[in-house]
Amino acid sequence: VTVPSAETPTSPAEVREALAGASYLADDSVALVAYLAQRLGRPILVEGPAGVGKTELAKALSRATGREMVRLQCYEGLDESKALYEWNYRKQLLGIQARATAGDDGGTVGIDEIFAPEYLLERPLLKAIASPEPVVLLIDEIDKTDQEFEAMLLELLSDFQVTIPELGRVEAETHPIVVITSNDSRELTEALKRRCLYLWIDYPEADREAEIVRLHEPSIDQGLAERLVEVVARVRELDLRKPPSISESIDWARTLVLLGADDIDETTFRDSLSTIVKHRADLDLVAEKIGPGLGQGDRNGKPGG
Amino acid sequence: MSAERPPARIADRLIEFCGELRAEGLAVGTSEVLDAALALESIDWQEEVGFREAIAATVAKSRADREVFDLVFDRFFFRATEAEALIREPDAGTTASAGGGEALAEVTVDDLAQAVVEAIESGDTGLMNELARLSIALFARDGERSGVVGVDLQRIRRGLGIGPGGDGEGPDPEGRREFERQLRRELERRQIESQGKLPPARPLRDLSRALPVRGASDLAQVQRAIFRLKRRLATIGHDPRQGGRGRTLDFRRTARASLQTGGVPLDLRYRPKRPRKPEIYVLCDVSSSVSSASTFFLSVVHALHDSFRKLRSFVFIERISEVTEHFLRERDFAAVSERITAAGGVADVSGYTDYGRVWSEFLDDVSADLGPRSTVIVLGDARTNGRPPGAGNFRAVAEQARRTFWLNPEPAAYWNYGDSAMAAYAPFCDGVFECWTTDQLEDFVDLLARSGGGASVHPAALARPEHRY
Questions:
Q1: A305:B261 CB<8 A
Q2: How far apart are CA B68 and CA B66, in angstroms?
Q3: Which residues pair with B420 in a beta bridge?
Q4: Kindly report the CA angle at A170 between A169 and A171, in degrees rounded to 5?
Q5: CA nearest B65: which of B30, B40, B29?
Q6: ipTM above 0.90, yes or no
Q7: pLDDT for residue B197
Q8: Cβ neighbour number for residue A257 with a 10 Å cutoff
Q9: Which helix (H) or strand (E) covers residue B11, if one does?
Q10: A residues 181-220 lying closer than 8 A (beta carbon) to B
Q11: How far apart are alpha carbons B139 and B143 in whole angstroms?
Q12: Measured between alpha carbons, how far is A284 from A221 in angstroms, rounded to an integer?
């Protein structure tokens, strides 16, 4: 499948439009950085609280550019053989045995033959590099890995190539768009940051979040969406273990639509609270701090300030 | 190719700007400057938002960096524009302010104040800027101009009746701050015009980045810092650190895995390493000599409680009392600190710390529980108020624990002056740190979470993170 918009975009506005077409509402800095990433061929390092759409940005870029997305989900203990490539031992052994039983040349098999591309298992990073079609490479939650892994990424990110000792260098045929996300749970190395464009995504402004909610749940009423976003913003202000993310706002919107609610009062809030707050201790705190304020009915619409 | 290439001089400006960023402590390498220049080439750099974001994305690589970046950006480019204006048209400013002279005669202060309030409510920054200029001109006409920005600002603010803390129904504070910002900026601009030269660049105050532990302490900012720290602790604390050294082979699983490869053990399996779960004892001084720091320290303890399960916390002034329970039962920080300082049973008669007594009590009540896995952390200024420091008892405590650290909220230069007995305790600690900024705190946390021996640690060793202690 060839891509219609594979050429690099010519302005941030164009990127923003393309992302909007892929149902991702980008603000100025997101659009600009996404544009620069494509123009300069740099990876984007995205940081921000959980659930503000960091991963979604990569998906949207993939949809907007029509490129396939290759995803590497990071976890503690992730190593080269899971991220980059691995030799297929079983196939190699079978290959040797097959030659031996076939009997030609007394079964001596050259090392070169054993370490041939056909015995190589491609893991996400190599796949993204070697793909003949340009892809979007998402390296998700890189802060979960250890520093050694980051060091391994450096060659890939700066030169878009991978060195396999037995085969030599594999250079990228096409230039992938790389999106690296981090939840900021540990400091990334300077070397990695140096190679990336940095983007901090925060919770969106109320207006934009309402727009996002309405984009994903079109049947919700405008006023209710605004009200919902406002309540969620107040919940986020509390010191919670896990503040509600944008996707949870959307889930809540869906729940409210299903419940047929046309306003958020204390009862609906209590009933549907579990869609936005997922922690036992948080539930009590939110119910106590936010719930009573909703029932009085004097906070309809937008409160000042 | 959406934009023409920026003129060559912008490169000089960019380098100059990055130089200022470096001076404020950002690690801006040549490659970043290069990136920024490349980025500017590919955007419509004459647009302010794009210009700022493009440089930010290539130069500021963390959220903290971004905050510094924004401050420096405003300062630098404001000064740059003004310097340019001075070169180009030295007296344009005076004509501009005189231009509206006739029209100005009809404006009264009341009308202006009314218009300002409306502009603030509408949130129209362009209008606010115009009104700011108008008010400066108006008050200058009445001869009320001191030439000192702060004084003029105050005077205009009072004249317009938009000062803070007036009657409750003032315009919304966000907009008011914006208007004041515009006003200040215009005043500075006027001053530069009238004097014909730029005032010296003020470096960012160190405190705008450090923890505001002294003076008016902004709890919200402390908590933001702690929140970052909390997340870092959460991962570092249980980091298995699979270094490859000292792993033990799991023979059973290796043999089993080798079946896939015809009995050849190609894939070695190791026993998982159990992460070290440290037991931590925190002792926090809450006396009045460290009162501004103790809020900070209590919130550190609060954060530690979230991250380490085996943690016992104590507060002390004259005597020591355990507050682990309070932290476990109450999640809200404000409530915890309230309970600890008020009803928490902090035995406080005189309000002066008695370290000697604290150590002997700690030794009697708690030290039986100390073992080779325990870490003792003391948060205090070591000011004994002239009482005996009880270093012998402290030594006994330190010897029973595996590691002992002391965090002192005073800069190291003040240690051992006056009644500070830091020197009496330092020899028995594995590390003594001054701790009054987030950075210092994070350095310490990295060290704490790193598993390793209990050898002596000096702050200088922090510079070499690979070193095993």
A1: no
A2: 5
A3: B383
A4: 110
A5: B29
A6: no
A7: 59
A8: 15
A9: helix B9-23
A10: 183-187, 190, 193-194, 196-200
A11: 7
A12: 29
Residues of A in contact with B27 (CB under 8 A): 190
Query: Is-above-0.80 flag for pTM?
Result: no
Secondary structure (3-state) at B334:
helix
Once rounded to an integer, what is the mean pLDDT over residues A228-250?
85
Residue A302's identity, in one-letter code, is: K
> Cα–Cα distance between A237 and B278 in angstroms, integer?
32
β partners of residue B285 = B316
Long-range contacts (CB closer than 8 Å, 24 or more residues apart) made by B115-124: B116/B160, B116/B162, B116/B179, B117/B162, B117/B171, B119/B175, B119/B179, B120/B162, B120/B171, B120/B172, B120/B175, B120/B176, B120/B178, B120/B179, B121/B171, B121/B172, B121/B175, B123/B175, B123/B178
Angle between helical axes of A12-21 and A54-65 (0-180°, round to 10): 90
Nearest to B59 by CA among B18, B15, B25, B19: B18
Contact B59, B26 (CB under 8 A): yes
The CA distance from A277 to A284, in Å, is 10
Structure tokens at B462: 């922090």
Q: Which residue bears the tokens 């946390």?
A: B445
Q: Do B261 and A93 touch (CB under 8 A)?
A: yes
| Facing A36 at nearest CB: one of B49, B57, B231 | B57
The tokens describing B90, both together, are 């030295």
- Chain B touched by A77 (CB under 8 Å): yes
Residues B314, B323: contact at Cβ < 8 Å? yes
Share of chain B above pLDDT 70, in %: 61
Q: What is the pLDDT of residue A61?
A: 92
